[in-house]
Amino acid sequence: MQLQFERLLDLPPTVLANILSTADTRTVLFALAGASPQFMKRFNRMLDRRDRLALNNRIKQIGVTRVRDLDEAQQQLLNLAQEIQGQPTAAVSNDRKAA
Fold first, then answer.
1. How many C-beta atoms lie closer than 10 Å to residue 47's C-beta?
2. Are 4 and 93 in contact (CB under 8 A)?
3. What is the pLDDT of residues 3-27, one digit of tens each?
């Protein structure tokens, strides 16, 4: 699933902002906590310094979490992205096992 999740950064910034603001905070934090370092580097470049620091502090405070919970949060954001863009949910595969 990681590869599919990282494609969110290919969306226009306004669409990505809409997805993140529509999702609940816990889902966003868990999804980002499970993101690759490359994803987070690109994502952090979209934020101003204050927001970047606040986000990173919130992610650090999550603590021990099951990988399955992080994967589910990423899938929820993908589903929301597809819903917002009017695409069928079945178009995204859950292939983290292949990564």
1. 13
2. yes
3. 589 999 999 988 999 999 999 999 9
